[in-house]
From TrEMBL:
Protein name: Glutathione S-transferase
Domain GST C-terminal: residue ranges: 87-232
PROSITE patterns linked to this entry: GST_CTER
A Pfam short name: GST_C_3
Length: 236
């Protein structure tokens, strides 16, 4: 099937979680906003269009279906792209893990925008500094420690005992956190050997390695979810 992915053209953002799945599977897709500009999304966001109206990107068009929200998109793509076990119980487990990743992604974004997403970071720097301290010291160890235990409980290599879209999303999560909090992630790394090994294996998968080396993989920047502000990073 041919897919059309809709997401903002200048950042990785949440769209990257979907993009990694499409790239890993070698799926045929078009990154619509990068080809046609961000305005191509407006008819879908303002409606009405065929299919359900999305609240925000990313969303995916597959034939006549329109699917929004990262976890829902990956749950839809997983069976077709062979990126999730076929058993319903395992598919539900994958969705649960993906939604937990989404929870942390939302907290990470709110670290640098703790008051309002509509205000500039510069308008909430003091609050962001306080929020970053809590994120680094409390939330990252809690979430990442959970994923480390999940991998350990499932044989030590994958959270689902086999390669899945959850592996790809954990790779993206760790890569983003490495950019955002390099000092803190370096300090946490000795406690996350299974996650770090998974991150390395994903980066070496042939299609992912080719994608990471291509122009299609945008660099992390201070317009996306994972933003590096030196004043928000520390080893503790």
């Amino acid at each position: 099937m041919h897919y059309a992915l809709y997401y903002w053209s200048g950042i990785q953002g949440r769209g990257e979680f979907v993009r990694l799945a499409l790239e890993d599977a070698g799926a045929e897709y078009v990154d619509m906003a990068r080809v046609h500009g961000d305005a191509v999304m407006q008819p879908f966001l303002q409606g009405p269009t065929e299919g359900g109206q999305p609240f925000a990107p990313p969303f995916l068009k597959a034939g006549r279906q329109l699917i929004a929200q990262v976890a829902a998109i990956l749950d839809f793509l997983g069976p077709t792209l062979d990126l999730v076990p076929q058993a319903a119980s395992r598919r539900m487990q994958a969705l649960q893990l993906q939604l937990t990743i989404a929870d942390l992604v939302a907290e990470v974004h709110d670290t640098h925008h703790p008051i309002s997403a509509s205000k500039y970071y510069e308008d909430q720097k003091a609050e962001a500094k306080a929020r970053a301290t809590a994120t680094r010291s409390e939330r990252l160890p809690k979430f990442l420690g959970y994923f480390e235990r999940v991998i350990e409980a499932n044989g030590g290599r994958h959270p689902l005992r086999e390669h899945s879209y959850v592996d790809l999303s954990l790779f993206q999560l760790l890569s983003g956190l490495d950019y955002m909090f390099p000092k803190r992630m370096q300090a946490l790394s000795p406690t996350l050997p299974l996650l770090r090994a998974l991150q390395e294996r994903v980066a070496k998968r042939p299609n992912i390695a080719a994608y990471l080396a291509s122009e299609r993989r945008l660099a992390f920047n201070t317009n996306g979810i994972f933003r590096h502000y030196p004043e928000l990073d520390a080893a503790t």
